Amino acid sequence: MSLISAQTVAEHSTASSCWIIVHGKVYDVTEFLPEHPGGRKIILKYAGIDATEAYDPIHPPDAITTHLPKDKHLGAVDPNTVVKVVKEVTAEEKKRQELMAARPSLDEIVNLHDFEAVAKAILPAKAWAYYSSASDDEITIRENRAAYQRIWFRPRILRDVSVVNWSTTILGRRSSLPVYISATALGKLGHPDGELNLTRAAGKHGVIQMIPTLASCAFDEIVDAAVPGQVQFLQLYVNRDREITRKYVQHAEKRGVKGLFITVDAPQLGRREKDMRMKVVDESGVAKVQENQSGVKKDEGVARAISSFIDPSLSWKDIPWFKSITNMPIVLKGVATPQDALMAYDYGLAGIVLSNHGGRQLDTARSGIENLIEVVAALKTRGPWPNPKFEVFVDGGVRRASDVLKAIALGASAVGVGRAFMYSFCAYGQEGVEKAFQIFREELEMNMRLLGARTIDDLTPDMVDASALHSHVGVTPTDNLYNTIYQPLALAQFKNKL
Q: Given the DSSP bridges, would you call strands 13-14 and 260-263 parallel, antiparallel or unpaired?
């Protein structure tokens, strides 16, 4: 096949004939414009030119080759005809590069809050807005953190804690930590290697990674980066096209994934206003054909752009179908009530994650740790507890090993950590994730000794006082580290300051 000149591509730069270049290949995306989850305007911005730089951070490498019909794959672009565009370094980007160079050394990072503070300083504004945003008034994201601070330890003394062991099993798989890496989307917004930072660090240290459906890296790329015997789970957003879901799940199982976590708390995406406002700010250079038109949605944000395929009709009647297409243990991610926990148990599932999606869905939903007490009490009505056939996980707001120990003492099997690990690689790449693991190990060792627990199995409900957990108002010590990093919501801004 003959090469296509860049000049030829440039002739197809309208909505009626739209070609783009991605990784040196030319694609005709004209018919795809109305279907693009992020809207047609972002594609039209790159019509007739090279879209690779915009494509990479929010798409797996194989997204366009997989989903665009083969007859729309037009061929390779002639590299000799491509005009190299010198990217102008903006003042904002220059400042970001200076901050990158001035980062604290990893030796100076002593807790997970430090990673978040560094990430906030060095990330592009759009990436920070997407990662840090939560829904509506962001009450729940802050409550996720505050809830752990309403639980107090009741340590036991005079126990031989010369050796403490915090390893455990998660869905029957060994883990060096009582923590797994929970799924977070679009890793390349924060680092060129994206989710591969997590995979490589997890394989090196025996930590389980949950692969996100909306990863920036291709699923097979993530699996290929794992070391032999490394345990990985899959987080699943259910597609409206169930055949796509079936193929994805069965391919994951074939590739050796050991658990399926189906997200059930996102039939519609929450309104994440920080992300939405960033989209408005970024629209100035997008799609001249839509300027000054009424009815053009400019408040969708990155999150909305990548999630329109999710099926809102998902219901309990689909559970038998999922059990029929895979032998992987199935866990429902996003459970919030004892009633749904019991239904999951009665449907024969392997477990649940008590989660509110990191505060990004239903605002003022209670925290996973608060729901844990009622859920465990309900599950005890089904038989002896802990039940080896049904596990309960918690995520949201975890920044300390002490948070993990509180959750396990109250009945959790293990704890999911998402943003904290994500910020660690945004700030320092794979080495940052490894340092985060080290911080967890050091904090676990200290806290388990001070608590009088030699192993994870020694953690029991009588080691914590959770009597204040349900009190959402009251005096508790201020979490200065969290509050220093937290970015309050902003109101709509006037175009010009008067």
A: unpaired
Is 464 in contact with 134 (CB distance < 8 Å)?
no
* Contacts for 274 with CB less than 8 Å, ≥ 6 apart: 129, 132, 133, 134, 487, 489, 490
End-to-end CA, the chain: 59
Asked if 332 and 262 touch (Cβ cutoff 8 Å), the reply is: yes
Report the run of H or E that residue 21 belongs to, with start and end.
strand 17-22
Catalytic positions are: 237, 265, 357
Alpha-carbon distance of 58 to 193, in angstroms, equals: 12
Identify the helix (H) or strand (E) that includes residue 245: helix 242-254
Place of tokens 């062991």: 165
pLDDT of 129 reads 93
Angle at the Cα of 82 (from 78 to 88), degrees rounded to 5? Answer: 155
- Residue 37: CB atoms within 10 Å: 14
Q: 180, 136, 148, 129: which is closest to 365 by C-alpha?
A: 136
Helix runs in 306-367, H state only = 319-325, 338-346
User: What stretches of 11-148 show up as alpha helix (H) in DSSP?
Assistant: 40-45, 52-55, 63-67, 91-101, 112-122, 125-132, 139-148
Residue 218: closest CA among 435, 415, 427, 23: 23
Which residues of the chain are modeled with pLDDT < 50? 280-299
Whether the full predicted model's pTM is greater than 0.85, yes or no, is: yes
Q: Assess whether the previous peptide bond of 386 is cis (omega < 30° from 0).
A: yes
